[in-house]
Design goal:
heterodimer, A: mainly beta, 1 helix, 63% strand, B: alpha+beta, five-stranded antiparallel beta sheet, four-stranded antiparallel beta sheet
């Protein structure tokens, strides 16, 4: 009997690998013997890795995140810099032929403390997001649910060029969703990790 | 694990009862799948996962981490892989021949065998020793080719036939007896020739000002860095030479320049394989118009105040006794333009122009260049001054403090200050600066 099944092959995997390879190649270039940037604004594109707690196990997923950062929110030489990012995220979590996708918008404040390094910039960050989870299941009803997520974490930005930073960070996230079709979800704690590049502008 | 679900036909999506084996709408056989599979597979404990789950466990995070690790490994290999600098590697045979004309490589295949036929600078009986160090062969220890290995043992030492002495000319005295150690021998020994290293690069620290006055000193600064890693290389001998020591001489080792007389002198910096550089220094004549400026530094004043300018004092009368006729005491009379006295506006204009140059990174100072090379929104402002420190002839020496600010790569504001002193004079109505000294950048 024919069964219509959506064949999922992690469409973002190639993009993630490309971003990582490009970032690492940039890092390995000796000429280039700087997240946020020196410029007032920055656009950041990151690969995002998250988990969703389903039942008693975690379902990993990957996706992308784009955000616009405002770097001059508050900055002093003694305290450091506080910036704010606004952006969107999209991740896909699959298991066999079941698929969960999360699309959301978020705000992410950051604090880069004053350190002696001009190459590495560790930071603390928080995140508040509104997300919509959509589930498609092979043998059960799908559905969607709108929920919230908030959390905190940290990371480090590495200066690659005068305008480009490599940014890597992780956060512990508390998510709250209703049932997604046949999948019961509640308040769960998960984690997210990301790596990407941010480009500051204007010059 | 069972979840309360509304069962639907996978084909027509019609709602069906769990007891039915076939869809009432399209007739599809719904009972083909076990009942337990009618729950989301994403939930744990579903028996339908089985082998598929194991296969899918090799998931995106693992692929990403593995890819990142491989990419990091490739990047590290690329970074630390020795650079192939063909131009810096002369051919081995050419190098060997350039080292000594009587040394030739017999076989170019490894290991090269070098045959030397020349009087060895060692006693003949030392050939029987167990080891001969390459440094003992003078011809081997110079040039770009480095013989870094100890020659393990002399394999063959063939005594060459004594050269037939030429008949001496009749009136010449008796020839000297040839010492035993000067015996010509042909020594064939395997020598491992190390691959020459890539030549480093000599870099001169740019000068803030290439103009000096007689008696002033200038310390040249330089770095010898690895061509590939850009890291400093220690142990490289650098030699300084002045093309005109009468104008400016330089310490051949320390690079300290002493300006002696007006003119132009070229300082040559030779770092051997690291390269050779040269800079041109101009020694300006001391002011002949001896105008006297009386500085009156005032607390809190941001502009120099030049109060009076008295006429030049009359030169001292000629000595009644003739001076000693020494060459060193003979003055060099040169035609120099007459200087005017710079006023406060001239000083300020010179300082403003200097600040503009600093903002454009045109002063070629290492600290300033490093500061401006990173970050964004660089600003260079005047903190205090300029204030007159002293007067020399027709020029005034002023001091002020610059403030550098920027945002670094983390978005944090960075501020540094630097003291500056410079001589300001006025030639042909145009104020100009010389002997600019920029202090190191420090936290305010």
């Amino acid at each position: 009997m024919p069964v219509t099944v959506r064949h999922l092959r992690h469409p973002l995997a190639a993009a993630l690998v490309t971003v990582q390879c490009a970032a690492i190649v940039l890092c390995s270039t000796p000429q280039v013997v700087a997240a946020q940037n020196a410029q007032p604004y920055a656009a950041q594109l990151s690969a995002l890795f998250t988990t969703i707690r389903a039942g008693s196990s975690d379902v990993a997923g990957a996706g992308v995140e784009v955000q616009q950062r405002f770097n001059r929110l508050y900055a002093t030489e003694a305290i450091g810099a506080v910036s704010l990012g606004l952006g969107g995220q999209y991740t896909v979590h699959t298991k066999v032929q079941d698929r969960l996708s999360i699309l959301g918008i978020f705000i992410e404040p950051r604090w880069v403390p004053a350190t002696g390094s001009s190459l590495l910039f560790p930071y603390l960050s928080a995140r508040l997001a509104v997300q919509r989870m959509t589930g498609e299941f092979q043998f059960a009803d799908g559905g969607s649910s709108v929920g919230t997520a908030f959390g905190a974490g940290g990371g480090v930005a590495v200066k690659l060029t005068r305008r480009i930073n490599l940014d890597a960070g992780a956060q512990l996230i508390r998510q709250q969703f209703g049932n997604v079709g046949a999948l019961p979800l509640g308040a769960r704690s998960t984690y997210t990790a990301k790596i990407g590049v941010s480009v500051g502008y204007p010059r | 694990m069972r979840t309360s679900v509304a069962l639907r036909c996978p084909d027509c999506k019609a709602e069906i009862s769990a007891d039915l084996r076939s869809c009432t709408q399209c007739g599809a056989d719904v009972g083909l799948w076990p009942e337990s599979q009618r729950t989301p597979l994403i939930l744990p404990g579903n028996p339908a996962l089985s082998a598929d789950v194991v296969r899918k466990r090799v998931s995106v995070p693992k692929i990403a981490v593995g890819t990142a690790a491989v990419a990091a490994l490739v990047g590290a290999v690329l970074y630390y892989m020795p650079e192939r600098d063909v131009e810096a590697l002369p051919p081995l045979a050419t190098t060997a021949e350039a080292v000594a004309p009587d040394v030739a490589i017999r076989d170019r295949a490894a290991p090269p065998v070098i045959e030397a036929s020349r009087p060895l600078p060692m006693p003949a009986d030392s050939l029987g020793s167990d080891a001969i160090r390459a440094e003992s062969l003078a011809a081997f220890s110079s040039g770009d080719t480095t013989l870094s290995r100890t020659i393990p043992r002399v394999e063959t030492a063939v005594r060459a036939p004594r050269p037939t002495p030429a008949p001496p000319p009749a009136p010449t005295p008796a020839p000297r007896p040839t010492p035993a150690r000067a015996t010509t021998r042909t020594v064939t020994t395997p020598v491992t020739v190390a691959r020459p290293a890539i030549a480093p690069i000599l870099t001169l620290t740019p000068l803030v000002s290439s103009t000096l006055r007689p008696g002033e000193r200038l310390q040249l600064r330089w770095t010898v860095t690895d061509r590939r890693t850009r890291r400093p290389v220690t142990g490289t001998r650098v030699e300084f030479t002045s093309a005109d020591a009468a104008v400016a001489n330089v310490n051949p080792v320390t690079g300290l320049v002493l300006a002696r007389a007006p003119g132009t002198a070229r300082i040559i910096i030779d770092a051997g394989t690291a390269g050779e550089r040269s800079i041109e220094l101009m020694v300006r004549a001391p002011a002949v118009a001896a105008s006297v400026v009386a500085p009156t530094p005032q607390a809190g004043s941001e502009t120099p105040r030049i109060v009076t300018a008295t006429p030049a004092p009359t030169p001292p009368p000629a000595p009644t006794t003739a001076p000693a006729p020494t060459a060193a005491a003979a003055p060099v009379v040169r035609d120099t333009p007459r200087n005017d006295l710079p006023d406060a506006g001239d000083v300020r204009s010179v300082v403003d122009r200097f600040l503009r140059d600093v903002r454009r990174d045109a002063v070629r100072n290492v600290d300033v260049t490093q500061f401006l090379a990173d970050g964004a929104d660089h600003r260079v402002t005047l903190v205090n001054g300029p204030s007159v420190v002293s007067t020399t002839g027709a020029s005034v020496r002023v001091a002020f403090t610059m403030r550098f600010t920027k945002f670094d790569g983390g978005g944090r504001p960075i501020s540094r200050v630097s003291p500056v002193t410079m001589d300001v004079d006025k030639r042909d109505g145009q104020p100009s600066s010389s002997a600019v000294v920029i202090g190191s950048l420090r936290r305010p």
